């Protein structure tokens, strides 16, 4: 049976997760509005473009790792088990980097693989090059988004960890 203290801690954890989720949703809405304004594209066209460029698998894996990194940062800021949450945040950032580079290499591989399926002749070279550049554009976009996001998570978690550790050292 749960003690009242454990029940309160569980409720507080759910509240913190809820607040964190609302912050992420709010920032996502602001980012989408900003992108829509900067690109002069309606939201539906922007989301369709993102689906074509990134695909659902990258978007879901990236989002999960990003949320994990942000959660680790929030836990560090609260001073919860800093060694553990620092490592969780660093591994989430490493996962984002690996994911971005993996999808880049996958896109390049698929693009090069598509060349072997078609005969090259003067009549179809324009179409083949067009398809190849689309696949390469998709491949490199995962790196353009993933590596900076990973660096930001890694830096933010590191700064939070340093702040917590400095505070603990000053108490001693």
Q: What count of domains describes the coordinates?
A: 2
- Our Rg estimate from Cα atoms comes to 21 Å
Helix content: over 70%
Number of helices: 4
* Beta-strand proportion: under 5%
The overall strand count is 0
Q: Structural class per helix/strand content? A: mainly alpha
Overall body shape: elongated
Mean pLDDT: 83
Largest sheet: none
End-to-end separation in angstroms reads: 37 Å
**Could you spell the SSE succession in H and E letters?**
HHHH
Instruction: List segments where confidence is low: pLDDT < 50 over at least 5 consecutive residues.
Output: none
How would you characterize this protein structure?
There is one protein chain. The chain is mainly alpha-helical. The chain folds into two domains: 40 residues; 129 residues. Helix content is 89%, strand content 0%. The protein contains four helices and no strands. Helix 1 packs antiparallel against helix 2 and helix 2 packs parallel to helix 4. It starts with a helix and ends with a helix.
């Amino acid at each position: 049976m749960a003690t009242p203290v454990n029940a309160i801690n569980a409720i507080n954890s759910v509240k913190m997760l809820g607040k964190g989720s609302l912050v992420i949703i709010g920032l996502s809405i602001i980012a989408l509005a900003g992108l829509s304004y900067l690109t002069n594209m309606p939201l539906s066209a922007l989301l369709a473009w993102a689906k074509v460029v990134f695909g659902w698998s990258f978007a879901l894996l990236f989002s999960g790792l990003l949320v994990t990194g942000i959660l680790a940062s929030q836990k560090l800021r609260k001073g919860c088990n800093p060694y553990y949450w620092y490592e969780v945040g660093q591994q989430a950032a490493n996962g984002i980097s690996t994911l971005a580079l993996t999808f880049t290499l996958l896109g390049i591989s698929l693009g090069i693989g598509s060349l072997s399926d078609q005969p090259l002749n003067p009549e179809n070279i324009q179409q083949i090059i067009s398809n190849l550049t689309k696949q390469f554009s998709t491949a490199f976009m995962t790196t353009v988004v993933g590596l900076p996001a990973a660096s930001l998570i890694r830096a933010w978690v590191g700064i939070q960890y340093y702040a917590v550790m400095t505070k603990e050292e000053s108490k001693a």
